[in-house]
Design goal:
alpha/beta; four-stranded mixed β-sheet; 301 residues; 36% helix; single chain
Length: 301
């Protein structure tokens, strides 16, 4: 099965490229040629082990987002932040010197983001850190092999607006999972976004959320969300369109039905899921999500 993805966030794009865009772990041929002791098909494991054993160094995260920094942003322990900085600097050096392909870079960055998230001192997003380090945050950083998609198909991963990807990709099933409200994911996940982007934006405020000059989704604006969904549905050359949304989202239920009905017959089903909460002791909160399914019988507009 071939899967094509699209997202505006660099973070999402890198994760998709590393897990869906390749069928197996990369071989890292250029690193072999540069003297890194890599043998056989276990090259990726060797590279991750090399990065894992790097000594920590003071860098962007260590200075701005750990207990070593003057700002007091306790997103990571000083040791883990220094290790992340050292690994990210090495990946950038390899890439800048032509020693990594795009897929190989994405593979390593996906491993780093996953490892960092496992020791982040947060309640789920990076919009705030916890006041004290949790047991999880005190664990040492550990790189793991990202899970690739070994199906023999080359997936197409795009950093682009969903409307563009949907309009130019003929597919059996178009799955849409747009933002539900005005919360910009680039702010809520600003540290992973910075890690994969390789930049060092100026931190602002208690959470250090930087101001980025990048495109934002129309789905973050209540007045534009409905028309944006209708536009995607009207131009997508898909045989089926599936929309995942929440009953508390910015787009009314009737508007979603209308957007899909112009393409064919529509059905929907509600699912009760665990709701996200940053507060402890509220694990029993639930939310209602809704899955819409359109069997397309009408051509694109």
């Amino acid at each position: 099965m071939k899967v094509v993805t699209g997202d505006l966030l660099q973070l999402s794009y890198i994760l998709q490229r590393a897990t869906l865009g390749i069928n197996e772990a990369p071989l890292f041929q250029e690193l072999r040629h540069q003297g890194l002791k890599i043998s056989g098909r276990r090259g990726a494991e060797t590279v991750l082990e090399y990065l894992q054993n790097l000594p920590g160094q003071s860098g962007y995260l260590h200075e701005n987002f750990s207990d070593a920094g003057e700002a007091g942003r306790l997103f990571f322990t000083a040791g883990n932040a220094a290790k992340i900085d050292a690994i990210r600097t090495t990946i950038s050096c390899w890439k800048n010197n032509g020693m990594l392909s795009g897929s190989e870079e994405a593979f390593l960055l996906a491993s780093l983001v996953d490892a960092a998230d496992r020791v982040a001192n947060t309640a789920g997003t990076y919009y705030a850190h916890l006041k004290n380090f949790t047991r999880r945050a005190l664990l040492p950083l550990k790189l793991r092999m990202p899970s690739t998609t070994p199906n023999g198909k080359s997936g197409g991963c795009h950093r682009a607006d969903a409307a563009v990807v949907a309009a130019t990709t003929e597919t059996d099933i178009l799955y849409l999972d747009p933002p539900y409200n005005e919360r910009d994911y680039s702010g809520y996940y600003h540290l992973p976004e910075t890690l994969v982007s390789g930049d060092a934006p100026l931190p602002a405020g208690r959470s250090g959320v930087p101001k980025r000059n990048q495109a934002t989704s129309s789905f973050y604006r209540r007045a534009q969300a409905g028309p944006a969904l209708a536009q995607i549905c009207s131009v997508a050359p898909a045989r089926h369109i599936v929309v995942h949304y929440t009953t508390a989202g910015a787009i009314p239920h009737e508007a979603i039905l209308d957007s899909l009905a112009i393409r064919g017959s529509v059905s929907f089903e509600d699912r009760e899921v665990r709701a996200y909460s940053s507060r402890t002791g509220q694990n029993d909160l639930t939310a209602r999500h809704r899955l819409y399914w359109c069997r397309v019988t009408n051509g694109v507009n």
